[in-house]
Specification:
- By secondary structure, this protein is an alpha/beta fold.
- The protein has a domain at about 70-180: Nucleotidyltransferase, domain 5 (2-Layer Sandwich), CATH 3.30.420.
- Helix content is about 35%, strand content about 10%.
- It has helices at about 25-45, 60-65, 110-125, 145-160, 170-180; strands at about 75-80, 85-90, 105, 135-140, 165.
- The chain has a five-stranded mixed sheet, with helices on both faces.
- The longest helix has 17 residues, at about 25-45.
- It is elongated, with a radius of gyration of 35 Å.
- The chain starts with about 25 loop residues before the first helix and ends in a 5-residue tail after the last helix.
């Protein structure tokens, strides 16, 4: 509370009061701030980490089934280059199948996704048992491709619902092909 000091009326002397710096007690405000911070921290939902399901073959089933070689016309090789460039070819580089020479494309709806969907549709129309004789995609990331490119191509596999794909190491022929296409620098 404020006090007012006054001198007795008969002296004639003026009494000066001490001048004090005004101050505000912030204890209540700090308490309120901590209560609000605690409330918002406890009521906020934290973001959950996103993960992608990766289907791995069962070791027991893999040993039971006889290993058969996939025909070259049913394999699509996707090679990840640098600067978000991607090359693909059907069959092998030495003997390209119906797809012709290796081609460059991009990620997304009009790029590699359309290539995978078209090739898958073509194979399903050509084979007698589409469940067992489906497209096999070989993914070969280069040492100059980045993690985002690898996640993007796995997303494309999930979007197109392709079940048979494998991640493989690049060969020297793949590197040479990327250099020729301008998707890889030495």
């Amino acid at each position: 509370m404020a006090e007012l000091n006054t001198a007795p009326k008969g002296d004639g002397k003026k009494v000066r009061s001490k001048k004090q710096n005004p101050s505000v007690d912030l204890t209540a405000m700090v308490d309120l701030a901590f209560l609000l911070i605690t409330f918002f921290i406890l009521t906020t939902t934290l973001s959950k980490p996103q993960s992608m399901d990766l289907a791995m073959p069962d070791k027991d089933e893999r040993d039971k089934e006889p290993q058969t070689e996939t025909p070259a016309w049913r394999t699509l090789t996707v090679v990840l280059g640098e600067d978000d460039k991607i090359a693909y070819y059907v069959g092998s580089l030495e003997n390209p199948q119906e797809g012709g020479e290796p081609k460059l494309t991009s990620y997304g709806k009009n790029g590699i996704r359309q290539v995978v969907l078209d090739k898958s549709k073509e194979i399903k129309a050509r084979v007698t048992n589409p469940e067992k004789e489906s497209l096999v995609i070989l993914i070969k990331p280069s040492d100059k491709s980045n993690y985002k490119n690898f996640v993007d191509i796995l997303d494309e596999m999930a979007i197109t619902q392709e079940k048979r794909y494998a991640v493989m190491d690049m060969t020297d022929e793949d590197v040479q092909m990327l250099i020729e296409k301008g998707a890889y620098s030495e």
